[in-house]
Amino acid sequence: MTTTEKKPLEKVCIICAKGSIEDVYAALVMANGAVMEGIETKLFFTFFGLDAITKKQMKHLHTATVGNPAMRMPGGLPFPTLLGAIPFVESGVSAMMRSQMAKLDIPDVEEFLEMITAGGGEIFACKLAADMFKLEKEDLHEEVKDIITVGQFYELAEGDRTQIIFT
Amino acid sequence: MAEITVNGKSIQLTEDGYMTDPSQWDKDVAVALAKADNFELTDDHFKVLEYLRKEYEAGATLTIRKVGKSGIVDIKGLYKLFPGGPLKFSSKYAGIPKPTSCV
Fold first, then answer.
1. Which of B2, B37, B55, B68 is buried deepest, with most CB atoms within 10 A?
2. ipTM score of the complex?
3. Which pLDDT does position A2 carry in this prediction?
């Protein structure tokens, strides 16, 4: 017998462990999208992902121009890795990414965090990584609820309709 | 395809319950659509619905951020008005298509 009852997601726990523009935004867009769909949302930043919620760094995220095979020149030609290694090229490319996103009306990181918490989403930092990078709660953005351990993270993920997403 | 009748007018809906013809919308239709979800609309809700309709007719892409900057209600307030689907539910009751933006 088949059943057609729908079982929508009830909770998502999204982990962001990398600090490049695209990795951070993937996590932010997914978290905000979940909140907008009425799904309970926990967003957890660890390792280099902490840059996205660190007051000093969050406005200066970058994208990798070296070792990024999907990188293209404007117009679509491949972007030579050697070119990406030249000083200032990376910051130019990152600035361009940010301006392209602004054109599409994509909010900056800070506004995104505020949108997520406005809808009831919660944002956390990983304790181990925060200790490693010597970050305290006051170094992190106000929207960050707490610095928690991996055990606490799994406690937050309880429930049989929860998904854990690692971006 | 579903259908509801409001004041003798037959309203066509998509599978998700969105109106197929936004021009059929009026306040009674909005109330009926909301009632089907056990949801009651107040004047504050209607301010948002009317804003969404105006922007939709102007061809704008609707996002919660845009509504948040409209001066009508901030994003937190929008979540309070339409819990669990600030843009989804407001678009539905405003009689405009299901939102297609990702932000």
1. B68
2. 0.91
3. 65
Of B1, B58, B102, B103, which one is the catalytic site residue? B102
- In a domain? residue B99: no
Give the per-residue pLDDT at A35. 97
- Quick one: CA torsion of A91, A95, A98, A100, rounded to 10 degrees? -130
One DSSP character per residue, B12-38 reads EE-TTS-BS-GGG--HHHHHHHHHHTT
Which pLDDT belongs to residue A74? 85
d(CA B53, CA A68): 43
Considering CB atoms only, which of B65, B79, B83 is closest to A107? B65
Range of the domain at B28: 2-36
| Residue B30 confidence (pLDDT) above 80 | yes
Judge: A105–B63 Cβ closer than 8 Å, yes or no. yes
Domains of chain A, by residue range, sit at 9-59+113-167, 65-107
Contact criterion met (CB < 8 Å) for A32 and B83:
no
Does residue B102 carry a catalytic annotation?
A: yes
B66 and B84 fall within a common domain: yes
B55 to chain A, closest Cα gap in Å = 16
CATH class given for the domain over A9-59+113-167: alpha beta
Total structural domains within chain B: 2
In angstroms, the Cα distances linking B25 to A9, A28, A127, B12 are: 31, 35, 52, 11
Give residue ranges of B with CB < 8 Å to any A CB: 61, 63-66, 68, 74-76, 79, 83-88, 102-103
Question: A45-96 pLDDT, tens per residue?
Answer: 999 999 999 999 999 999 999 988 888 888 889 898 899 999 899 999 999 9
